[in-house]
Each structure stands twice: as C-alpha cells, then as structure tokens.
Design brief:
InterPro entries: Aminotrans_II_pyridoxalP_BS, Aminotransferase_I/II_large, AON_synthase_class-II, AONS_Archaea/Proteobacteria, AONS_Proteobacteria, PyrdxlP-dep_Trfase, PyrdxlP-dep_Trfase_major, PyrdxlP-dep_Trfase_small. The protein is an alpha/beta fold. The protein contains 15 helices and 14 strands. Helix 9 links the parallel strand 8 and strand 9. The chain is globular and about 60 Å long.
Amino acid sequence: MLAVSEAAPVGAGATLQERLARALSQLRDADLYRVRRIVDGGHGVQMRVDGRRCVNFCSNDYLGLATDPRVAEAARRVLARDGTGSSASALICGHNREHRALEEALAEFVGRPRALLFSSGWAANLGVLRALLGKDDVLVADELNHASLIDGGRLSGARYVRVAHADVQGFDDALRLALVERPQALRLVVTDSVFSMDGDVAPLLPLSRLCEARGAALMVDDAHGFGVLGASGQGACALHVVQPQVYVATLGKSLGCAGAFVAGSHELIEYLVQRARSWVFSTAPPPALAAAARAALAIVAGAEGAERRARLFANVARFRSGCRQCGIALGASETPIQPLIVGSETATLALSRRLYDAGLWVAAIRPPTVPRGTSRLRVTLTAAHTDAQIDHLVDALREAVSSLQEGTAVAGN
C-alpha cells in the first residue's frame, strides 16, 4: 500500500504549482502582471517609492489628510489610552466609545439617522447586499460598478441585471421588466457615485426619481465623492439633492484613514447589525483609527475643508488646462480622477515607467480593473499638490507621449 506522499495523482490535470506557474507566466507575457512597490514613510504627495523620491499622482488622499499631524495625534492619544486593537467583533466586546462617536458624527454629517462602521468599503458593500437581497429579489446595477458591488450582488443570490454605464433608460427598462416578472421582489438599484477609473459621476437625480416612480430602492457607493463633492463635502448625493435608502462611503480616501460606513434609517442599521455577515463576524477596527477618522471629519466639515476642496478643484482645472494646451486628450471628468486612456497594456506600462523615471508616480491601470483595450494612466489630483508639481507632470506626460510612437488614442483632439 502506498504512503500518502507516494500516492498517484488523481486525474491528469496539472498540479497546483504547475497551474500557478503557468498562470503567472501568461500574465507576464500579456503585460498584466502586477508588482507591489514599497513606500518608505508617510503616504502623502512626496513619497519614497522603492528607494526613489517621487511625487505621488495615483493616491485617493484627495484632501491631503493621510499625513496630517492633527489626525495622527488623535490616533496617538487613543492608542495610548485604549491600545492597538478592539480584540473582537462589535457584538462581542469590540464596540468602543470611539466607534460610537464616529458613527454619530458621520450620521450627522451626511444627514441620516444612523451610521454603521465597517472595516472596509469592500466589507460594507458585501455586507449590505448579502443582507438585503435574496434569490427572489432583483439587483439592477451599472456595468462599471466597483468590484465589491459586483461580488456582493453575485453572492446575494438575487437576479443580477447589468445595465450599460449611466444608461437611465436601461435602468428603467430593467425595473419595468422586474416589476412584471417579480412583482413581490425587492428591486434594488446600485451605483457608484463617482466611478473610480473614469472619474465621471452617475446620473443620481434621474436614478433617484426613477426608483421612486418604479417602487425600487436606491443604494449609492459614494467612496470617491464623500468629503470631495458638495459645498460642505457631504458627497455626490448631497450635491445632487438625492437621499438614497442605502448610502455607503469610505474613510480611506478624503479622510485619509481606513474603514467605511453605511448610513440610512434606524431600521436599516439595526437590520445590518443583525444580518450583515461581514460586520457581524469581523473584528471591529482599532479605536485609534476611529478617533483619527473623526478628527479628519472635523477638518473636512469646517472652513479648512472648504479651502482644501477649493484648492483641489483648482488643481484639477490646472492639470486639465495644461493637458489641453499640450494636445493630450483626457476624458470629460471634472473630478480629481483624470484618466488618460492609452489602450495597449504595453504602452501604458511604458508611460508609467517613463514618469517614474522622471520622479512621478502614476500607476498603470490594466485589465481586469478596466475593460480590455482601455488600459490607462489614472492620474489623481489632491489638495496637497503644488502648481509646480502639476506643471512638471504635464511636461513629463507630453514628452513621454510624444516619444512612444504608438498608434493609440493618447494624444490628439
């Protein structure tokens, strides 16, 4: 009788190691292989990346708070008092007073009765969709929604209907059909507010009106709008005077911290406390992190927050103007996310490397993050960038694009 280690393999398929090696080789050959770069020190505008000093133009730290000393000091105070971890899920013994204070501050800021803190935006979206939807329900979603919304919808077991990007008529058609085929179902429309790879904003007001007319609920992931859009930074929904039944936003972008929250009615939050598996079965975030996020929120909500937003959008305008003068074609985005569509994965990597050599960090975004044939440089502006840094980026882009001699739609109109 053979020992376990000597047993013949079952079937003729490749071993795990062979399969992994082959898959990794295919990714490298297709210029889709991804490599982590190491940052030394703070994750601000000025960074040391793999030992090289760079100006960071691929961060979501839109208001420049990730390295703000006041936010760090708030974390330090609570770290000294409450320690490094919450030690358990919120329903066991992990719900600290700092968590409660942050939830109350977030709910007040976005004008909703309650808010619930999650460890990440991914956990929030999966938790909400799996809790609210079942196999008899219908989810109608924008095709360019974030991966967390896609995976959460699929895992929910609901009928998943993808609609062409920002196509209000497509949403209407899907809701009409769902009403006929499943009149008793919960019909939930789900969309990002600001789409993370294109920078455009969803048609929130038409979608809100459509949901009201068709008896559907609306869920908006405002990850890239919260703290950035609106006169007071309350996000895309406030800017467009929309109040979705389910509002999700993150703390790792405009607040420069980590985590996420869901805001809505008292009943919604209580239901999620009972049924959102990614919340119920996750260790609560460290109290110090909640304290840091609350300190950042206070800055965002005040006069300084308004000044930072004004500076941010002045930087966006400067970058777009510079690119236009150089003949570099950008999309229509007016948000801090400014994609430069290249198309070819190889050319996108080459552009990113040239910028890195010039002391500028702009990540190459390739499939599956974006559809095949739309690889791009995703330039993001922050309030902390200077005019000189933005001008340097524009000049470096002009030189890099003109030197590539690629037949892609990078430069032109």
